[in-house]
Design goal:
Blueprint: E1 2-11, E2 14-23, E3 31-35, H1 48-59, E4 63-67, H2 83-99, E5 105-110, H3 112-123, E6 130-133, E7 152-157, H4 165-171, E8 179-184, H5 195-203
Parallel strand pairs: 3-4, 3-5, 5-6, 6-7, 7-8
Antiparallel strand pairs: 1-2, 2-4
Length: 211
């Protein structure tokens, strides 16, 4: 039987609010933390794309944590333009590992959250894989991806006008292996009417993600 728990855990500037989903009585295949889009544009852990990504990992047998960055929902603090949010994610990873020791941990994120997930993967070399949905390469350039040797899965809508795919297309050849990009023809930034396709793309690449 699956269970969803509201959890609160210590963050760098106060408590952080999260939703933990797991299946009782089943050996999990891993831990996953999923990050939400930009909180200054109403992004929270309840965002539909964030939920879809989390659901895909859960259906693969993982324990999944969504959480609100500082200043979103019931999480303490104020928005820190990315720097503090990476610290928030590191706290979420630490919380999940402390509660469920000995399991591999993966990170994923949507839009702003994908940037934070990638930054966390740079900082923590023990993370197993990273999944970045609609990464905002228009706003940051990550040269470290040329050296990041864990599996990197990018999911991008071709009709995305908020985080256009051209930046990903131009940068992708410079990224270190293993890497993969999945393009969604006609999909906008929020994957309207394509969330099931998004989930299927993650599910079909479970071996690439080392799950």
């Amino acid at each position: 039987m699956h269970k969803v728990q509201t959890v609160f855990f210590a963050g760098p500037v106060g408590q952080l609010e999260g939703l933990l989903k797991l299946t009782e009585g089943q050996e999990p295949r891993g831990l996953v933390v999923v990050c939400h889009p930009h909180p200054l544009y109403h992004g929270t852990m309840h965002n539909k794309v964030t939920f879809a990504v989390a659901d895909a990992y859960f259906k693969l047998g993982c324990i999944v944590l969504r959480f609100n960055f500082r200043g979103a929902g019931q999480s303490a603090g104020i928005h820190d333009h990315g720097k503090g949010e990476v610290d928030d994610l590191m706290a979420a990873i630490g919380y999940l590992r402390e509660r469920f020791p000995g399991l591999d941990c993966h990170v994923a994120g949507f839009s702003f959250g994908s940037w934070i997930a990638l930054e966390a993967a740079k900082r923590d070399s023990t993370l197993i894989s990273v999944c970045a949905v609609a990464p905002p390469f228009k706003y940051f350039e990550p040269p470290f991806l040329g050296h990041l040797a864990i599996p990197k899965l990018f999911l991008q809508g071709k009709a995305d006008t908020i985080c256009p795919g051209e930046q990903l297309q131009n940068l992708f050849p410079s990224f270190a292996e293993p890497k993969e990009v999945v393009w969604f023809e006609g999909a906008d930034h929020f994957f309207a009417h394509r969330l099931e396709d998004l989930k299927k793309a993650i599910a079909s690449r479970q071996h690439f993600l080392r799950l």
